[in-house]
Amino acid sequence: MHHWFGNLVTCESWVHLPLNEAFANYSEYLWNEHKLGAEQADFWAQGSLQQYLGESEQKQEPLIRYNYTDMEDMFDNHSYAKGGLVLHMLRKYIGDEAFFAATRNYLIRYGFGTAEVNDLRESFEEVTGEDLNWFFNQWFLSPGHPTLKVEKSYDANKVTLKVTQLQDSLYTPIHRLPLKVDVWVNGQKETHDIVVNKAKQTFEISVKQRPDLVDFDAERQLLGEINYEKSKPELIFQYQHCDKYLARYEAITGLENQLADSTVRQLMMQAMSDKFWKIRQLAVSNFSEYDGLQFNEVERLVQSKARVDAHARVRTEAIITLGSFGDNSNDPLFREALNDSSYQVVSAALDAYLIGKPDDAVDVAKRFENAPNSEIVTAVANYYAGLAKPEQYDWFMVKMKRLKSAEMYNFLQVFGKYLIKSDGSVQRKALPMLETMARNDPAYFVRFGAYQVLGLLTDIEGVKAMRKDIRNTERDPKLKDMYGQFGEF
Question: Which of the residue ranges 14-18, 57-61, 131-135, 267-271 would you say has the lowest mean pLDDT?
Fold first, then answer.
């Protein structure tokens, strides 16, 4: 995408960086939609929203930042994740034909040159014939996002929706939000278009009888937070009738930890066969450590998911869930899964199999000692940590020299478990390596991981002083802040 947005048309200055990066980000949505379908695209957008909302807890900036301090600050989840989601809302508002026509015109007009945000706005206005200042002002030029509280009531063939915008209007403006509301009555859907544009607003919708469900922002396209309580029957209806992935996801997560209810339990069992893998994964995970009614039926369903589900993450979740049942009856299935085509599945199966301490555990662990995947190696390490044999120390050292930084933190946690169960001589042998790593590793999270492992060894003379010196001499602001939060631990 950067061939077009960034190279063919370049943002006029760093201020307008989202003209490059928002389109680059949104191209991933478009590719997922084209190649893998709308549900995978919406799953990707869900991750983008979570990234932005997470960052928004620390800072909220306009997409177009005239007062930035360092251009590097611009390369964040505002320019990327929020920018892509804003483009998606614009597409939903004006429609696909207008969105792609305006985008094409923008590239042709400003090709081999530069552009700024008003040029983009004007390209969309020319195609739609609509003044879009309101959209660009609130989404590109203002910080923050809307936070809505939605309250529903029914009386005398009328649904009343009270919508309150909760964001601080001194910092984040009251937004204009064109949204769709689906009202389901007697299993039939009727879609209503509304515009939320006030701090407090009431909408009334005529209905023939009490609705099964009133689905606010039915397209699940709003970049923001919506607080809207739904009853258990409403969530069950939502899963069974709403087609969009995000609506089904919301229903499943809203019904978690309610398996004692036979209706919810049946729905979760049904959801293990959902058309989208993420819903199947969530449904399977809901039965972790389950020992209630219909256990045998539940176990058979999870076993089927572990063996034949098309998606590796679902097979992985199924194996983890079977392992949580706490007996060895599924060991043959775990043994079978060691030959799965997915490293992720093999790792989960290895963990589950070795925890049961079968007779061939040592031989199976040896088979995977030098696997080319860090998750599998970590599963072996977890088994060795439980044994805590001195002769396995060198194996841990060899693996840590070969792992990438991104893989090291989790491995260090397992190494810490090994050291805790080892005798003092093995613990002392590890100190120089851990100290060097905690002081000098290029990755701050690896330094933090080594520091944490040292925290397990503070009974050894000198370790407390060593950790204090590590904290005091650390220069990375991010890590210093983490040390401040976690104290001496």
Answer: 14-18
Confidence of residue 2 (pLDDT cuts 50, 70, 90): very low
Q: For 355-409, how does the pLDDT look when each residue is reduced to its tens digit (9 = 90+)?
A: 988 899 999 999 999 999 999 999 999 999 999 999 999 999 999 999 999 999 9
Q: Which pairs with CB-CB distance under 8 Å and at least 24 residues apart come from 256-260?
A: 256/286, 257/286, 258/232, 259/286, 259/287, 259/290, 259/292, 260/292
Helices (H), 209-290: 232-241, 245-254, 262-271, 277-285
* pTM to 2 decimal places: 0.89
In the structure encoding, which two tokens stand for residue 282, read together? 């969530």
**Two tokens, residue 364:** 């199976």
Which H or E run includes 333?
A: helix 331-337
Residue 443 phi/psi, 5-degree rounding, is -90, 125
* Mean pLDDT over each residue of the chain, to the nearest integer: 94
Which CATH code, of 1.10.443.10, 1.10.600.10, 3.90.1150.10, 1.10.390.10, is assigned to 9-139? 1.10.390.10
Question: 230-275 pLDDT, tens per residue?
Answer: 999 999 999 999 999 999 999 999 999 999 999 999 999 999 999 9
Q: Does domain 147-228 sit in CATH 2.60.40.1220?
A: no
End-to-end CA distance of the chain: 45
Q: Where are the domains of the chain?
A: 9-139, 147-228, 397-489
Which own/partner contact pairs does 165-170 have at CB distance under 8 Å and 24+ positions apart?
165/196, 165/198, 165/199, 165/200, 166/227, 168/144, 169/199
Q: Is 214 left (phi over 0), alpha (psi -120 to 50) or beta?
A: beta
